Amino acid sequence: MTATTTTPQPAELEDVKAATATDKRRVQKKELWRNRSLLLPAVIFLILLTQIPFLTTIGFSLTKWNLLYPNDRAFAGFDNYTSALTSGDLWPSIRATVLITAFSVTLAVLFGLLFAVLLDRQFRGRALARTLMITPFLIMPAAASLIWKYSMFDTNIGMINWVLQSLHLPVVAWSTEHPMATVVIVLTWQFTPFMMLILLAGLQGQDKGILEAAQVDGAGAWRTFTWITLPHLRMYVEIGVLLGSVIILQVFDPIAILTKGTGGTKTLAYLLYERAFIGLDVGQAAAYGVVTVILTIIVATIALKSVFKVFMAGGSR
Amino acid sequence: MLANKRMLALGTGAVAVAMTVTACSSGAVQSGNGSTGGAGGAVTLKVATVNNGQMKDMEKLKTEYESANPGVTVNFQVMEEGDLRAAVTADVASGAGQYDIVTIGAYETPQWGANGWLVDLTPDLQADSSYDVNDLLPPVRDVNSYDGKLFAVPFYGESSILMYNKEVMDKAGVTIPQNPTWQQVADAAKKVNTADMAGICMRGKPGWGDLFAPLTTVVQTFGGNWYDSNWKATVDTPEWKEAVGFYKKMLDESGEKDPVSYSFNECLTALKEGKAAMWADASVAASMLEAADSPVKGKMGYAHMPVDKTKESGWLWSWNLAIPTSTKQKDAALKFVKWATSKDYIKLVGNKIGWSNVPPGSRTSTYSIPEYKEAAKAYAPITLDVMSSVNPKQPGVNPQPWVGIQYVSIPEFQDVGNQCAQLVADYLANRGTIDDALSKCQSVAQAAGDKHKK
């Protein structure tokens, strides 16, 4: 009786025929390993690509190693961390990173929302307008920075200053006088399409029936937008903010090309580059890298946790 | 689930570090394949070089060398300046022997020579009378020597000069003397400065090779310097304050509007577009202003770099060929280096590529070739004049413990120069005071100087 049961209780199984059970388990195990082995190349690749360099970096960060003094390489303990934390470069850099990310992401979301609302309606040439709107996001960051440097911000040949001059306003020396604004403008320009795409998807996923019902109930366009559309978009805004922040936190190109880290725009990525490629100090650069990762993990954990909660709440919305 | 998210965050972080590390050690990683030339008479020479026009011309002409020397193949690895510096430093310092010939700047040669990384070329070059080592410009030989030994030979060299738009100057009734002072230049700049055209364009982009190339020469001619002869940093001195204050005043009164964005290329454009009347920068710029497609061709005047307390204030830079001690084919490498820096090579470039493309500033004899004199008549005489009269052993008022003009030949200088350039840029943008910038710069410079005190 028990032997023919399709799903036997473990206790019963052991009671009756222990040998078969072991075989079965062996088969299951075998299958499991075959399944796992299919994943193995990817896993090995992942480990090779991420974890080993990570450990190497930790190793480097504990070494006194300046490329300019190749023979003077020794174990340094936590010297590099001490100098990274006490040199006075780290906190201004964190501040710059946070400010640039916060401003750029906020502005990109606002503009993205505006354009998404405008593009979420039927009109002639909508496909073309959308493609054009997305273009800034498809341009390489370095190329975007160069375009802005020469054709927009330049005091002689830039369009912004041409417009200002035509209006008889004083010429603005962007990189010199407003370095932070310069970087934020370029990043906003680049990331607005990204936010727009996400928000547009949100808008198009909206149930038109609800909007019609609101109309029937006598709600105006503004009230419909603030009370129905915006709450619906909240989830999309959150995804956009999260992804945008993760990308902009590592921003490098506009700073290297436009401001060279002056005027409070030295982000962590640029600071790291300076230590590694201008200071040629591998040990110290690695220490900065590890500190950056620890900070990023803390921020990301908090962010993911809150977003995760929101997703749960979003399900009940 | 939450644990998975955290793992994701950890993974992301690890990727970020991984990227940093691969970027950091990109130079060190590629040190495996040492050359295996020499077998059966076939020799492959590996040359690391910088992506400048003259170097690319050399790559084009390598077939001439290969056909004259059967069995020899020359492979070029052309890189961006920063990449070259990182790759070559890592290779040479670790003794990996990946390159047989390396292209290095005047800033590196004495340091690497002192480290024993480069082959001393003096005996071989002196033994060869047809090479005529004394024809190489003496100041360029000085910056590429350490302890009296020549560790690299110049491929091309440059100094800095003052370039000005003659038409604009004439219209304003301003004459620029052949050896102007900085005060004269600042006054002239003020006179010709209009809303449409800056009086003078000077580098302001923060960087040791950007802002501080001209600014160091200004400081030196105002009587200041980075270090005194005991490697004590001398940045917080009145001379520095005067020089940096002068630079800012000149930029504020008559310079380009957005100095932090401006370096060599930006100023070159401004001059060509008629947006600036004067420019003090690398002498190689003259050949670009006189190029066939330049709108200001034939309208430019050239003078010595302006001075204050010294007689000359031009800088001195050269790109050089050197042989790392780690090479396994020293003789073949030496033969190629000699060919590429010979008088015949200069003529070869002139005949095959064009006389205005000849690598300037390496040999005195270049300046007496009739075809070159004709092709570069606007700027060749003054270039030779400045390049042979600058004194890299003591460019400033006081003696200095290194040889070199617009840089300090210690490994830390890139970093010191860069950090100070950012501090000075904050002052130029009115974000900080000059005293604050110079006192911070002083402590950065002193920390580096301490490592070299004897």
UniProtKB/TrEMBL annotation, chain A:
SUPFAM superfamilies: MetI-like. One of its GO terms (cellular component) is plasma membrane. PROSITE patterns: ABC_TM1. Residues 94-303 form the ABC transmembrane type-1 domain. It is a multi-pass membrane protein. Pfam families: BPD_transp_1 (PF00528). The keyword Methyltransferase does not apply. It is found in: Cell membrane. The chain crosses the membrane at residues 38-62, 96-119, 131-150, 180-203, 233-252, 285-308. InterPro entries: MetI-like, MetI-like_sf. One of its GO terms (biological process) is transmembrane transport. Its main location: membrane. Keywords: Cell membrane, Membrane, Transmembrane, Transmembrane helix, Transport. The keyword Plastid does not apply. Belongs to the binding-protein-dependent transport system permease family. This is Carbohydrate ABC transporter membrane protein 1 (CUT1 family). The lineage of its organism: Bacteria, Bacillati, Actinomycetota, Actinomycetes, Micrococcales.
From TrEMBL, chain B:
PROSITE patterns: PROKAR_LIPOPROTEIN. Pfam families: SBP_bac_1. Keywords: Signal. The keyword Secreted does not apply. The keyword DNA repair does not apply. InterPro entries: Bact_solute-bd_prot1, SBP. Gene3D superfamilies: Periplasmic binding protein-like II. Residues 1-23 form the signal peptide. PANTHER family: ARABINOSE-BINDING PROTEIN-RELATED, DIACETYLCHITOBIOSE BINDING PROTEIN DASA. This is Carbohydrate ABC transporter substrate-binding protein (CUT1 family). It comes from Humibacillus xanthopallidus.
